[in-house]
Amino acid sequence: MDPSPHRDEEADVIVVGAGPAGCSAGYHLARAGHDVLLVEKAVFPRDKVCGDGLTPRAVRELLGMGVDVEGDGWVRTRGLRVHGSGTTVEMPWPVVASCPDYGLVRTRQDLDRLLARQAVAAGARLLEGTKVTGPVFDPATGRVGGVVAERDGARRTFRAPVVVAADGASSRSAVALGIHQRTDRPMGVAVRRYYTSPHRNRDHLEAWIDLETRDGRGRASMPFGYGWVFPVGDGGFNVGLGTFHVGRRPDVDHRRLFRQWTARLPAAWHFDEEHADGPLRGAPLPAGLNRRPQYTRGLLLTGDAGGMINPLSGEGIDYAMESGRLAAETVARALARPTAHTREEALLRYPEVIREAYGRYFTVGRLVVRALNHPQVMRLVATHSLRRPVTQRFMFKLWANLTDPYSPDALDRVIAALQRAVPAA
């Protein structure tokens, strides 16, 4: 039996997960005047395994949520510094009309708490420390009509005509409806650790693209991926690496790869055990829309729950906030419709909205990942890609997904043509 009714047990929309995707969806829906219940299993502040880097795409979404990015706690970045095969290149963020010309860095422990507060300020109701254990189904229609959750050992039922799943890579909500991760889409693994360091970089994201590793027999390989050093302020750095693959997972020991890579960095940077600010932690990176459909029976998938991670860069925060906003816009249109049939028609449009936003770019990304998982191709790219300015700019624009299809820039036109030439993911 469900527990007796409570005032806060019904809402217009339930959002499961208060990370960037969930907070974005909650913020925009609340701003549109809807009663939003945002359910988060952890209690803020809480940590998430992430690079903490925010591209100009992510900054655009922050500004769209009214977030003050000028205050304390933000590190502003001017671009990317790339290292590979003895070469170092600095590239400013590409100029895109729809985005600011700078990036940011902020730890997820701070960022997610800030975004949750922003959603609450817009009118969303936040329940922390509340674990959603599964959806509630309407027995007459088979649609999702809410969620069952546990808090402080007590079971509660929350009901709403629409549920937005923003519950991360494992997405209990998606699995409950039989929506599993696809093995033919890119999947990544990332590990990261915080350090206090005298490293002087304060205004660039840094990336190393020659992640050569050796196994226990001394055999060398170079997986597709990169290592990063991102400044988080006050002498702190987020140091990590990630790799991507399509299909069968390559035999990569990411902890060993991390040790071997950091051992090659300058000893004066102190990326060592003595200066570490916590353990090495890892997380999966489901990418390239590896869960489909993104909508079914009253449930919409956003962010990592829908595999909305860039398969080239591993960046997920910008796509999480963007897809949260797209989900909110779809739900708001649906709730404005007069009948159940027309509301469902509006919700069924959501997968196409997502495909229009990301499908072709993610297909290009999948093809690139597949190619770069051939060791010879990856070694060739790591050795030669930084030697020519045109190649540098092309790779950076493609990697960051920062292009303007209406720009006269030749590289923007080439990347736009590539995307037109492939089917949407």
Strand order of the largest sheet: 6-5-14-17-18-13-19
End-to-end separation in angstroms reads: 42 Å
Tell me what portion of residues adopts beta-strand conformation: 25-35%
Tally of helical runs: 11
- Low-confidence segments, ≥5 residues, pLDDT <50? 1-7
* Mean pLDDT across every amino acid position: 94
Structural class estimated from helices and strands? alpha+beta
The coarse overall form would be: globular
Fraction of residues in helix? 25-40%
- Rg is 22 Å
Q: Give the total of beta strands.
A: 21
Major sheet summary line: 7 strands, mixed
Quick tags:
25% strand; seven-stranded mixed β-sheet; disordered N terminus; six-stranded mixed β-sheet; 425 residues; 32% helix; alpha+beta; 21 strands; 11 helices; globular
How is this structure best described in words?
The chain is an alpha+beta fold. It is built from eleven helices and 21 strands. The chain has helices at 20-31, 56-64, 108-122, 172-176, 254-264, 317-335, 340-347, 350-372, 375-384, 389-400, 410-420; strands at residues 13-16, 36-39, 53-54, 75-77, 79-84, 87-92, 103-105, 125-127, 131-137, 144-151, 154-159, 162-165, 186-196, 204-208, 213-214, 220-221, 225-233, 236-246, 281-286, 295-296, 299-301. A seven-stranded mixed sheet has the order 6-5-14-17-18-13-19, sandwiched between helices. It has a six-stranded mixed sheet with strand order 8-2-1-12-21-20, with helices on one face. A three-stranded antiparallel sheet has the order 3-7-4. 48% of the residues are buried. The model is unreliable at 1-7 (pLDDT under 50).
